[in-house]
Amino acid sequence: VLPLLLRALLSPFPHSGQSGYHGSSTAYGGDFEAQRHWMEMTLHLPLSQWYKYDVTYWGLDYPPFIAYASYGMGWLSQKIVGIESVALLSSRGFEDENHKSFMRATVIAWDLIAYFPFVYLLSKRLGGPGSKGIAIFLTAVVQPALVLVDNGHFQYNQVCLGLSLGACHFMTLSDTIGVSDVIASVLFCLALNWKQMGLYYAPAVFSYLLGKCFHRSENW
User: pLDDT-derived band of residue 26, with 50, 70 and 90 as boundaries?
Assistant: First the structure.
């Protein structure tokens, strides 16, 4: 409850680029407007135009997984908030309070889907089911930088981070037939396809999995 309450308390505060051009003469707003624009763009344009449409105005510059997620969130936004929240062209700079609440709810939803579960798995594994494990979990999920950037400014970094943590959890399990390594590979590929920042962890993940391959071949 505490991590969710902390995130909810950020709702009344402003976000990056709110009510202005954020130093740019062409692109209104900041991260909120970028995410909102990607939602409307993926919702209304054919797939072939997602990475080509008006790149001077918050052009889509993240991998495909987040693009498809934007499509899903855009579809929900038009159903819950209204079509005006994702009306291509006419909604640029749209900062309705209902839509802001919806957007903040999507960040929390992604926390629950892709970040909290994998943090819990690792916390329980490292600290056990008792107070130590709970302390590790709470420390990770209330980490100020992540909460402020993601929940305060609509970055959705926690999805990439959570999937990467999940990959680390599964690839370090003892598994003679390699199922856990396959799960880890899938999770890390999803992380890379959410945000390019997953590349920071790629050398370690690649080296570890490659090392396990050689270790298994020696045992055989």
Answer: low
Rounded CA separation 193/181 (Å): 18
pTM: 0.88
The position carrying tokens 């994702």 is: 86
Percent of the chain with pLDDT over 90: 60
Q: Does the CA dihedral 206-209-215-218 come out positive or negative?
A: negative
pLDDT of 70: 97
